[in-house]
Amino acid sequence: MKKFSTAGLLFALACTTASAAAPADTRAAANCQFLANAPDQHQVVRGDTLWSISGRFLQHPWCWPQVWGLNRDQIANPHWIYPGQVVYFDRASGRLRLGRGVGSSGDGLPTVRLSPQTRIEGMGRDAIPAIPASAIEPFLTQPLLIEESALLSAPRVIQGGEGHVNVGKGDKVYVRGALNGATEFQVYQPSQPLRDPDTGAVLGYEAAYLGIVKLTRAAQADNEAHSFVVTTSVREIGPGAQLVPLPPTPIVNYVPHLPPVEVRGRVMSVYGGVANAGQNEVVTINRGREQGLDTGSVLELYHFGRTVPDRAAGNEPVKLPDERYGAVFVFRTFNNVSYGLVMQVTDPVKVGDVARSPE
Fold this sequence. Notes:
- Helices cover 14% and strands 34% of the residues.
- The chain is of the alpha+beta class.
- It folds into three domains: 7-100 and 124-130, no CATH class; 143-245, no CATH class; 264-356, Thrombin, subunit H (Beta Barrel).
- The model is unreliable at 1-24, 71-78 and 101-123 (pLDDT under 50).
C-alpha cells in the first residue's frame, strides 16, 4: 500500500487557512491552550507523529494546526518535519516552530543552517505523519461497513471452480449479480450488525474482508455466472460471500479539527469483536457524514454517566455526569457510522461510551 506523507495533510491545511473562519475554528482556537509545564523544545525522533509532538506542548494535541507557525513555502513542502529536527516553543507568539539552525532568525529563535544534499528515497518518505498511519492503513481501502441497501444489491459468490466449495488465491470462482462495468472486486462476508446504542436500529453490517477477485469472463446471458480468479486471499472464499468494487488508493488529509457542527454519539463496537479498546485501536461511532462528521474530526470520549438513586430524597433517580477520559480521531466515514482511532485514553474504551465534540 502507498505510504503516507504529510504532503496531502499540509495541502489541506493550506486550503483551510485560506478560507474564512468557521464557528468550529473559533471554538478550536479557544481550546488550544499550552501545558503549564510545556518544554522549550523537542528534538524529533523516528516514531514521532505530529499528534505526539503536539501532545508534549498542548492540552489538546488535536489543536496542532492552530499553533504551528507555517509560512506558505512550508505548507507546500512535503518534506516538512523529519527526525533530527528541533521543534521550539515560541512563548511570545504562542506558536510551535521548526528551528533553522545555529545562530538566530531575527525573532530570537535558533536557526539551522542547511547545505545542499541529495535524497535518493521517495519524496516525503521519512517525514513524520500526523497520526500513526500503520494503525489505520488496512482500514482505508478494505470494506468495513456494508449498509443494507448495498447488501441487497451486491454481486455474490455461487461456488468455486471445479465444484469446490471454498477457494483461495489462484482459484476460479463463479459470481452472479450486476458488475456495473467494474472488473476488480473486494470480497467480504457480512458479519455482525452494528446497532445504534440509542435507538437499537441496525445502521449496517461489519464486513469480514476475504480477498480480491478479478473478472476473467463476463456472463453472456442473464442466467449465466461471471468467471473470476482470486488474486488475493486472506481467508477462504465460499458461497454467499459478496463483492464490492475495488476502490482507488485514497489520498486522505489528516488535519485534526472540531466537527463542523456539534456532534454527540456513542461507541457502537470495538473492531475485532473485543469488549474494550486502548490506544491506537479502532472503534465505531453511531454518527457519520449525515450528522456532520468528516475525516479528521476529533471527538472526546466520556464514560456514560449511570443513573443512581438518591437515597436521601426517597430514591429519586439522578444521572451521574459523563466522565471524560480520552479522544478519538475519525479517519473514515459512512452515512451514519464512522470509524475512529483511539488516540489517548486514561481508561479502556467500552461499547456505549459517549463520543462528542470537544467543549
